[in-house]
Amino acid sequence: MEDSKKGAPEVLPAYSKVSVLNCIDLSSSDIQKSVSLLKQACLDSGFFYVINHGISQEFMEEVFAQSKRFFNLPISEKMKLLRNEKHRGYTPILDEYLDPINQIHGDYKEGYYIGVEVPEDDPDAQKPYFGPNVWPTEDILSGWRQAMEKYHREALGVAKAVTRLIALALDLESDYFDQPEVLGKPIAVLRLLHYEGQISDTMKGIYGAGAHSDFGLITLLATDDVTGLQICKDKDAKPQIWEYVAPLRGAFIVNLGDMLERWSNCIFRSTLHRVLGNGQERYSIAYFVKPNHDFVVECLPACQSKENPPKFPPIKCETYLLQRYKDTHADLNSYNK
After folding, report:
1. CA 33 to chain centre
2. Is 337 within the bounds of a domain?
3. For the chain, what is the mean pLDDT?
4. Distance of CA 23 to the CA centre of its chain
């Protein structure tokens, strides 16, 4: 880790391009304008800002403060809360390997997964991504669970508001994604993230988070004011061109996931993104939304034609996610060695 700070690290050079993203105001009464801005963003890059989303700035700051409280714990305490097979709990540095072609090591970030709380005796707890969460005890972090559960609920409300605009942008009924069979029991996951201040070096394969696209329907990302997130609008370009996404106070950075790209037959974009560390600590909070376990994702009728047939076969949400998580996370047995 030490020698990665030598050489010619990629920080934030003055000539780096900053992406210009559309900004959607969820409080706007001009729905048509919001849908138009969102559709343009989904066709272009699959990234946009959402403002006036209803979660207060005071509460956002409280959740960030609670996140820092957890990551400031000794590693011995954090490892007691190591993620389980349901992907709940702590993920150490290097646990995730998002870009094995270009990364020498795993991601230089640590995280914490919090899903939908499902009691052990609930039949739904048998599903892969449902069950009880892993929580720090009150004597270690008082009020922590309550803050995270509240944020989880409020973020789901924001996500559903965004999916209504996405539905309209796809010429669907506004509640298409909000139907019980689609998002009635969503696989919605809150993930706290902490980048320790490692300096990334793309020439040496060292990244805060390797290049990847998200797995699900949409992701809401809240960040602090430290720049690090980059997107590549054309993943097939040689060489790839990366643009920074500037933090925007009080806003969510929203991006589309691979499932929505499949749903829309690649009309809407799921874009490669990565995080480069510049020596500063960085905190972010991601909220990933996927449909119900048993929902089958298949090409929308409005997104296919004789000239543009479906590019992907139908697939059950649960099946798709199990493979994607398996491909990107360390085997839990490796922590017992």
Report:
1. 26
2. no
3. 91
4. 18
CA distance 217 to 154: 17
Token pair belonging to 114: 């919090």
Q: How many Cβ atoms sit within 10 Å of the Cβ of residue 102?
A: 13
Q: Residue 298: inside a domain, yes or no?
A: yes
The amino acid sitting at 194 is H
Sheet holding 218-223, edge to edge: 23-25, 47-51, 252-256, 218-223, 282-290, 187-195, 110-114, 89-91
Q: Is residue 218 part of a domain?
A: yes
Rounded Cα gap, residues 312 and 261, in angstroms: 10
Tell me the pTM: 0.91
How many domains does the chain divide into?
1
Residue 106: CA atoms inside 13 Å, Cβ hemisphere, count? 16
Specify the pLDDT at position 236. 83
> How far apart are the C-alpha atoms of 207 and 16, rounded to whole Å?
17
Task: Give the structural domain span for 181.
Answer: 3-329
